[in-house]
Specification:
By secondary structure, the chain is of the alpha+beta class. 42% of the residues lie in helices and 19% in strands. Strands 3-2-1-15-16 form a five-stranded antiparallel sheet. It has a four-stranded mixed sheet with strand order 8-7-6-11. A three-stranded antiparallel sheet has the order 12-13-14. Strand 12 (368-375) and strand 13 (378-386) form a beta hairpin. The longest helix has 33 residues, at 87-119.
């Protein structure tokens, strides 16, 4: 008899979701679906607002990565003003995004995912969280918290707030970095580098024990998409779009964000509020692609900083070339923190950071604008249409997490097929399926967040719709 296993909610992610696992008549996994069960509606209720407010409004989409929306929105506003922002404005925006990448990746690795690595997939779920990590290895937990604090403080030194800073605006940014802020960042960089090296070496050692996870957590061929610089280097703010395949072949390059509707399609399914973007030339769902740290590391030719480039060579040797396992998202995330810290180190003494020439001004010179930036979780598009007074007529947002939707569904199906056998539901099985989602570090609610333990419900449902078995974790 066919059955369905439901995991609701998925824990230790940002937002609310559930997973359905469908078993066939033989009790084997046939399919799995990742449902996002909340709806935000920003694209609709922003209509009628002045485009100059959009950076402040859309930053409220997310409490973890508001900087990503702030920058994508400000870049869209630049297009509507049709201005070129001053060099100081771009460098300051880049500095804030590097702080954002650092704090968000540190949160994902130390707070959300490392309890699985360090306490065990089958460990007591009551302790398998950041508090369990603090009890088990207080020095590592403290170092991780301070690394995240470093990234948050970079954001605060620029925007006067850790979250929802009303700082980046169409045309540039409101204020430069202070000399005191420059000194603080410079002084804290060595400690942050030390913590990152500790985490990187720890994870590389753990990889030797996690070969099954490497093989089963989303190991499949797909396209990868992200921004690269003019020489193919790792990029997080500017550059142009590149697609590569699982053989490192460049499928499409130097794509402009203004043309995104030519190469990105957006499908919907009746069982999820999260859209299913796909690479249009291959159609849906064959146009599956991945974004975020794994994609950025796969599509770039190099980082452009010495330590990160050395680590990238080792990463590619370990992965056998292109990393096609979603489990490598964790590894790629650490490489990106290293690259971000090195980029901050290169940038911190630039005199433009304290320049007062941070903003260009202009009127409504374009009635449509499309901005793109790399959020920690992947490429983020903002698309606005305005009237002659600059009031928003239409908004389309392609959120980073949504672009991994097809890949997340494929990942949990692969994990479920490997670990679920028969009707017995174990905590370790549930945790591994959830961990497949955590590897992508999805941000679903984009403002409502949870850490640590959340209730978990699993149901076995027969082909006739009757619940055959239930497991609750409170």
């Amino acid at each position: 008899m066919a059955k369905t296993v439901i995991i609701d909610p998925v824990t230790r992610i940002e937002g609310h979701a559930k997973i359905s696992i469908y078993l066939d008549d033989r009790g084997e996994v046939d399919d799995a679906r990742f449902h996002v069960v909340e709806y935000r509606g920003f694209e609709k209720f922003c209509e009628g607002r002045p485009f100059t407010e959009m950076a402040g409004i859309t930053a409220r989409i997310c409490g973890i990565c508001p900087v990503s929306h702030l920058l994508a929105s400000a870049k869209t506003g630049d297009k509507i003003l049709a201005v070129k922002i001053p060099p100081a404005g771009e460098k300051l925006r880049r500095l804030m995004n590097l702080g954002q990448i650092t704090q968000s990746h540190a949160l994902s690795f130390f707070h959300l995912s490392s309890p699985d690595f360090l306490l065990g997939w089958d460990s007591d779920p009551a302790k398998r969280n950041v508090f369990g990590l603090i009890a088990s290895d207080p020095e590592l937990a403290r170092a991780g918290i301070r690394l995240r604090q470093f990234g948050q403080t970079v954001i605060e030194l620029l925007g006067a707030r850790k979250i929802h800073a009303a700082w980046a605006v169409p045309g540039g940014v409101r204020t430069p970095l202070s000399e005191e802020g420059r000194t603080w960042i410079r002084d804290r960089l060595p400690e942050s580098r030390q913590t990152l090296n500790l985490a990187l070496n720890l994870f590389k050692d753990l990889l030797n024990r996690f070969q099954t996870e490497v093989e089963q957590f989303g190991q499949f061929r797909s396209l990868f998409m992200g921004l690269v610089g003019k020489n193919g280097e790792w990029e997080h703010y500017g550059g142009q779009i590149r697609f590569t395949d699982s053989d490192a072949k460049i499928v499409a390059d130097s794509l402009n964000e203004d043309d995104y509707q030519d190469y990105l399609g957006e499908a919907v399914e009746p069982w999820s509020y999260l859209k299913f973007p796909y690479y249009k030339p291959l159609g849906y769902p064959d146009g599956i692609y991945r974004v975020g740290p794994l994609a950025r590391v796969n599509i770039c030719s190099h980082f452009g900083t010495p330590e990160a480039d050395r680590e990238l060579q080792e990463f590619r040797q370990r992965a056998g070339g292109v990393a096609t396992s979603s489990f490598y998202y964790h590894y790629a995330r650490l490489l990106e923190i290293l690259a971000a810290l090195e980029r901050i180190e290169q940038l911190i003494d630039d005199p433009d950071l304290t320049s007062n020439r941070t903003r260009a001004t202009g009127g409504i010179n374009q009635l449509e604008g499309i901005g793109v930036s790399e959020a920690p979780r992947g490429t983020l598009f903002h698309h606005y249409q305005v009237d002659e007074n600059g009031l928003i007529k239409k908004v389309n947002l392609i959120i980073a997490t949504g672009q991994n939707n097809l890949a997340m569904n494929k990942t949990i199906t692969q994990i479920a097929k490997h670990y679920i056998q028969g009707t017995e539901i174990t905590e370790g099985m549930l945790n591994r399926v959830e961990a497949g989602i955590r590897a992508f570090d999805p941000c679903l609610s984009c403002s409502t967040h949870a850490t640590g333990q959340m209730p978990l419900q699993v149901e076995l449902i027969g082909a006739d719709g009757k619940v055959l078995n239930q497991v609750w974790r409170n």
